[in-house]
Design goal:
- By secondary structure, the chain is α/β, with parallel strands linked by helices.
- It has four domains: about 5-140, P-loop containing nucleotide triphosphate hydrolases (Rossmann fold); about 150-225, Helicase, Ruva Protein, domain 3, CATH 1.10.8; about 235-400, P-loop containing nucleotide triphosphate hydrolases (Rossmann fold, 3-Layer(aba) Sandwich); about 405-490, Helicase, Ruva Protein, domain 3 (Orthogonal Bundle).
- Helices cover about 45% and strands about 15% of the residues.
- The chain has a seven-stranded mixed β-sheet. Strands 3-2-4-5-1-6 form a six-stranded mixed β-sheet, covered by helices on one side. A two-stranded parallel sheet has the order 7-8.
- Helix 4 (about 100-115) links the parallel strand 4 (about 90) and strand 5.
- The N and C termini lie far apart (about 65 Å).
- The structure holds adenosine-5'-triphosphate and magnesium ion.
- Magnesium ion binds next to helix 11.
């Protein structure tokens, strides 16, 4: 089981950390693990909740044998302070009460006075919500989700062993996949997912992997901060970018155990900077498909939406979920928008920079296979910390497509519309469209289809040429911004293309 958590609690208590905050949805599992620590240290465990007051943990729900069971938050803190016992006190959902001035104050006093005792207070709840004044007194401990071994244990010793009303038909490979599919679920969720998989057809077999995976998609959805993106577009729908494609191709196998043994570090991720409509988002999506990994999208603006939870908590949640699903591609679109509030006085008491600081640390220190693909179409607002070497693996600059690349892009979009590119004069169309983005080329093809459909005939090269001609590309209306970005990227970013766009030569 996750004894890593028990070991951490054990060490903290021995080192006289008097106030711990365990953030978890898995109260039951956390309580059991804390119980094992208490046994080891030969201390009793008491629990408190607003509904039951204080009770001993081993006789669940039996109120404490005291004349007045302290039910109110202040009373229980007083009781802990005066109690003679060397004990561990688990206070459930206490984060709901410490906003009260007297409760907060009392807790602060208690944390000091406990230093000389051998009593420990463990606050437990599903959300992280720590008032600033308590930050220094309370140590946060995460209960990690069950790991591979814990889920294996659940599946082998609890589910499969109890097989009476169902049959088990799993080869070792299928079993391994089933366990992996359940990583990222809590113990109870995993148990429920396995149960669902069995009830469905009375057997537990290879087909059940999908049922377990579905359960996981549900969890991601409920988290509110990440989005699970089903993608079907392959990297062949992206025109050009040969250098980037080769770079990615080389890293496809770099997530496995073999790569670690060989001495390769875990790939961290890339930042795609560049001109609007040139395929940054498109490429980000297709990486997951070509590596056969799931794609999660992190919407930074949701992190800062307080109704989902506090920003800090949302960020932690996003990082934890992503890690629990690894190997995974984590796509952060338009990352500069999140950072733009950081410079100057954003008036949020430093929340933005705190949250982003913890994100940047995570990017640098994470050891799990979470490959970040961040995109940005503005340099302004991007913090230097993000651009520093070693933070991400590489920063790429996505420029307007060159002549050769435009040929590819036009062909891709014709093919998408079930037309045969060879029956069009692609060379001429590509020449006509110097300075056009991939998105603008796509629009020209679509507008041409509208024209020909309206006139009840098949689309021709002329239709596309006409539509290219009437479009004023962004590269004209936003010339200065694009030039500035190109300048900036010269010695900071790598070009995605071996034939970079050059307006003068074209
Ligand atoms: N290189 C390309 N190959 C094929 N299609 C492309 C390419 N670039 C852009 N497109 C088309 O344009 C659409 C929009 O591009 P995308 O959203 O990926 O651009 P972006 O670089 O993310 O732009 P923004 O900076 O505005 O977010 C794509 O969905 C695709 O259909
Ligand atoms: Mg985009």
């Amino acid at each position: 089981m996750s004894h890593q958590f028990a070991t951490e609690i054990d060490e903290l208590i021995r080192a006289r950390y008097t106030m711990l905050y365990v953030v978890t949805w898995e109260e039951h599992r956390a309580r059991k693990l804390i119980g094992s620590v208490a046994d080891k240290q030969q201390k009793p465990v008491y629990q408190w909740s607003i509904t039951n007051g204080l009770y001993t943990a081993n006789i669940d729900n039996a109120p404490m044998s005291v004349d007045s069971n302290p039910r109110q938050p202040l009373e229980v803190l007083q009781k802990i302070q005066t109690d003679e016992n060397e004990a561990i006190y688990i206070l459930h959902d206490f984060y709901r009460f410490w906003e009260e001035p007297d409760v907060g104050r009392k807790l602060l006093d208690l944390s000091r006075s406990l230093k000389s005792s051998r009593k420990t207070v463990i606050i437990m709840g599903p959300v992280l919500n720590l008032p600033e004044e308590l930050e220094k007194s309370v140590t946060i401990v995460d209960l990690p989700l069950p790991d591979y071994n814990a889920i294996d244990h659940l599946l082998t010793n609890k589910i499969i062993k109890s097989a009476r009303n169902f049959t088990v038909n799993l080869n070792p490979e299928e079993k391994d996949k089933l366990i992996k599919a359940a990583i990222g679920l809590t113990y109870d969720e995993a148990e429920n997912a396995f149960a669902r998989a069995i009830i469905d057809d009375g057997t537990l077999n290879g087909d059940d992997i999908n049922i377990v995976l579905e359960e996981k998609v549900q969890i991601i959805r409920k988290s509110g901060v990440l989005e699970y993106c089903p993608v079907d577009e392959s990297i062949s729908t992206v025109g050009g970018m040969d250098i980037l494609k080769e770079w990615l191709n080389k890293r496809e196998r770099a997530f496995g155990e073999n790569a670690r043994r060989y001495g390769l570090p875990q790939p961290r991720g890339i930042l795609l900077m560049g001109v609007q409509g040139c395929g940054k988002s498109l490429l980000a999506k297709t990486i997951a498909t070509s590596w056969s990994l799931p794609l999660l999208r992190l919407d930074m603006s949701r992190i800062f939406q307080e109704y989902i939870g506090s920003s800090e908590q949302n960020m932690r949640k996003a990082m934890k979920i992503a890690e629990s699903i690894a190997p995974v591609v984590l796509w952060i679109d338009e990352i500069e928008k999140a950072f733009s509030g950081m410079t100057g006085n954003s008036g949020d008491g430093g929340t933005t920079s705190r949250v982003l600081g913890s994100f940047l640390t995570w990017v640098q220190e994470k050891t799990s296979a979470v490959f970040i693909v961040a995109t940005a179409n503005q340099v302004q607002g991007l913090p230097p910390e993000l651009l520093r070497k070693g933070r991400l693996d590489e920063i790429f600059f996505v420029d307007l497509p060159s002549l050769e690349e435009r040929k590819e892009i036009i062909a891709i979009h014709l093919r998408k519309k079930k037309r045969i590119p060879e029956s069009f004069d692609i060379d001429t169309l590509a020449k006509l469209s110097a300075g056009y983005s991939g998105a603008e080329l796509e629009q020209a093809v679509i507008a041409a289809l509208h024209d020909s459909f309206f006139e009840d005939r098949e689309i021709t090269s002329d239709d596309i040429a006409r539509n290219i001609d009437v479009t004023v590309p962004l590269s004209e209306t936003m010339r200065e911004q694009i030039d500035a970005m190109r300048d900036w990227s010269k010695d900071r970013a790598r070009s995605v293309s071996s034939t970079p766009f050059n307006l003068i030569e074209e």
